[in-house]
Write a structure and sequence with these properties.
The chain is an alpha/beta fold and 374 residues long. It folds into 3 domains: 113 residues, no CATH class; 57 residues; 197 residues, Double Stranded RNA Binding Domain, CATH 3.30.160. The chain is built from 12 helices and 8 strands. Strands 3, 4, 5, 6, 7 and 8 form a 6-stranded mixed sheet that branches. Strands 1-2 form a two-stranded antiparallel ribbon. A hairpin with a 6-residue loop joins β6 and β7. α6 runs antiparallel to α7, α7 runs antiparallel to α8 and α9 packs parallel to α12. The two termini are 72 Å apart.
């Protein structure tokens, strides 16, 4: 008998080295999963069967020890449930494979420890505690407490399934935990812009500005008690005049070229020469600079709690170049610009509108930071 046990132990260590390595390290869950992966195929070996049997025995013993230790402590039901659920999942993976038999007829069974009753028991206990805590947080009335309540109701739904009662409580927590913000656009009375530019600036997006716990409306809803007003202000802009300038310059470069072939040894002869090209360049430039600020106004306290300046610019640049002479003399910069043509300058409305659109994006990013913790 002892010889048989010694043989089987040696066989396990020799033939199931990877599983044994995980067991030696105390990684019993990894050992079980590794052993299971070896037994998923059609061909099952005796060493893999023994590997799973040993790994499961170590694993389940460790998990039950952990549970007994946690039972001695308070508020550990959630951790105990996680352990039982993991053990139940392991059982579900092993059960379809039983009884285990290799291709040579070796058969063994693994006595699984049924934990389904414990899973149900602790799932009920955890759900009861979540419900008690969630109701307590909801009754406190604060936004942060309501958000905790929402998470707890959602955990309950994930744990026990959705009911109309739980969904109603979760929705109530969502409503109480949400910060309501009304977004407004303003243009300083000192400046005048076209209708098209005004529309580009004033067209705000609720979906872009809203976050999980911050709902931003762009149209006031009389039924909504707003906590804050988010104000985008276009304060000023500067349009540069259309600038067009031309210049001429010469690119020079020393290059090697063939000068024939040596009659003595038939080798190619090279000589250095200087080549040049005259470049005529036309440069076009126009710019719009805009500035504004983002304001967050506390409706209850009736004061600004945030104000930050924001700027943006839109630049139009164009190069049109031609050359005379040897193309090989052109610099990399000149080569990139050769072939361009003069084009029409953008209208004031177009360049200003593009600058305003960029400004608004910058403002949106600034705003998201301003109320991220509200």
């Amino acid at each position: 008998m002892w010889k048989t046990i010694i043989f089987l132990t040696a066989f396990t260590i020799w033939g199931c080295a990877s599983v044994q390595k995980e067991l030696n390290r105390g990684n019993y869950s990894n050992a079980v999963n590794l052993a299971l992966s070896k037994l998923k195929g059609k061909k099952k070996s005796e060493k893999d069967i023994i590997g799973l049997r040993d790994a499961y025995q170590y694993y389940i013993a460790e998990q039950l020890r952990k549970v007994e230790q946690l039972k001695l402590q308070s508020n550990k039901d959630s951790q105990i449930l996680s352990i039982y659920e993991a053990a139940d999942n392991i059982n579900s993976s092993i059960k379809p494979l039983l009884p285990l038999q290799d291709q040579n007829g070796f058969v063994t069974d693994i006595p699984l420890i049924d934990v389904k009753a414990e899973v149900a028991k602790y799932k009920s206990r955890v759900a009861d505690q979540l419900y008690f805590n969630a109701i307590g947080n909801l009754e406190k009335g604060g936004k942060m407490e309501a958000r905790k309540a929402y998470d707890q109701f959602q955990q309950m739904i994930n744990l026990t399934g959705a009911t109309s009662h739980l969904q109603s409580l979760r929705d109530e927590a969502k409503k109480k935990g949400t910060t309501y913000i009304l977004a407004l656009g303003e243009i300083d009375s000192k400046i005048s812009v076209s209708k098209a530019v005004k529309e580009r600036f004033m067209s705000l997006s609720s979906s872009t500005l809203s976050k999980n716990w911050q709902r931003v409306d762009i149209t006031a809803d009389k039924r909504t008690p707003y906590d804050y007003e988010l104000i985008f202000v276009l304060e000023d802009f500067v349009l540069s005049p259309e600038k067009e300038s031309s210049r001429e310059y010469i690119d020079k470069k020393e290059i090697e070229e063939s000068a024939g072939t040596s009659s003595r040894d038939n080798e190619k002869i090279k000589r250095k020469i200087e080549v040049s090209a005259q470049v005529v360049e036309l440069y076009q430039f126009k710019e719009a600079q805009v500035k504004g600020k983002v304001i967050l106004y506390d409706v209850v306290k009736k004061k600004n709690i945030y104000s930050e300046p924001v700027t943006a610019a839109q630049v139009f640049e164009n190069y049109a170049s031609t050359f005379k002479g040897d193309k090989r003399a052109l610099s990399d910069v000149s080569l990139k610009r050769i072939g361009g043509k003069p084009i029409a300058f953008p209208s004031n409305d177009k360049i200003l509108g593009d600058a305003v659109a960029t400004l608004k994006k910058n403002m949106e990013q600034q705003a998201l930071k301003a109320y991220s913790n509200l």
